[in-house]
Every structure is written in C-alpha cells, then in structure tokens.
C-alpha cells in the first residue's frame, strides 16, 4: 500500500479525482496562487516552530504532551482540516506516541479549533485512510465533480480544460 499522508487525506475529502491524479505525479498546485498563499501563511506564522517530518506526512508542530498543531490559511474550519489532524494523530500513535489531541490554528481570523483524539476519532481516521487507499488503488480516474465545486482548484484545467 502507498503511504498516506495529510495532503492525501485533504485531497480525498476535497475530490477523490484530485487524490488519484496527485498520486500519479500530476502536481499543478505548484503553479497555484492559493497554494503559494497558504505556504506563505505557514512560513510566516509561528516561525519559532519546526515541522515534524514523518516521511509520508509533515506535521506543523507538536507541543509537550503530544498535542498536534496545524496551521491553515483559510478563515473557516472544515472537515478536511480536522481529518488531516486526526490522520496525524493516527500516524504518531502508530509510532508509539500517546497523542492527547490536535489544534488547528487559523491565524487570519485568530481562532483555533480543537480536534479530539479518542477511540471514535481513531476509527474515523482509520476509515478515512482506507478510503484514500481505495481511491489510490483504482485503475481508472475517478469521475470529476460538478464544476461549481471545482472553483479555485489547481486541477481544474486537467478536469475541465477540454469542456
């Protein structure tokens, strides 16, 4: 099975087609203004923190007591963000760390959201990981979503370029 990281979980919940293409090397997000903006927010916020590189995933930082922190450039919480943090909790737990919970930081609105880590969250993270692995292993490209959901997606030209 392929290693599943946080970006894979985010892409799965945004669009399975995006995950499938990403895993096959299609990476238009490198040309995306939205991605560059998010990276700038990450690079200039909480600058005293260091990423934790797990290989398949990169956690923004972990504080004492194994609290996972993730910074997002959006102004509103989303299920994608929570799922990504739950996945990081799962990955650390598999490495023998007793994780407490996660915190998502939204610096543009100066808010945080706590992500619980318990048996229910673990089961949800494991199920989401299985879904991602199922999408990645499909031989055919998943269908594209309705076009309005694709607004702002860096993969839009691939999916809708000839339409």
From TrEMBL:
Signal peptide: none
Protein source organism: Nonomuraea glycinis
Domain DUF83 residues, every copy: 6-160
PANTHER family the record matches: CRISPR-ASSOCIATED EXONUCLEASE CAS4 (PTHR37168)
Pfam families membership: Cas_Cas4
InterPro entries: Dna2/Cas4_DUF83, PDDEXK-like_dom_sf
Protein name stated in the entry: CRISPR-associated protein Cas4
């Amino acid at each position: 099975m392929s290693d599943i990281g946080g970006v894979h979980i985010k892409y799965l919940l945004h669009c399975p087609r995006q995950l499938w293409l990403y895993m096959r090397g299609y990476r238009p997000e490198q040309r995306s203004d939205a991605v560059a903006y998010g990276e700038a927010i990450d690079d200039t916020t909480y600058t005293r923190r260091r990423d934790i590189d797990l290989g398949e995933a990169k956690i923004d930082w972990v504080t004492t007591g194994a609290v996972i922190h993730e910074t997002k450039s959006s102004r509103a919480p989303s299920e994608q963000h929570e799922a990504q943090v739950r996945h990081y909790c799962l990955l650390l737990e598999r490495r023998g760390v007793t994780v407490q919970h996660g915190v998502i930081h939204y610096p543009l609105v100066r808010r945080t959201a706590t992500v619980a880590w318990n048996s229910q969250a673990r089961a949800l993270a494991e199920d989401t990981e299985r879904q991602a692995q199922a999408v990645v292993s499909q031989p055919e490209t998943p269908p594209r979503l309705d076009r309005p959901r694709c607004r702002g997606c860096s993969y839009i030209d691939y999916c809708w370029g000839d339409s």
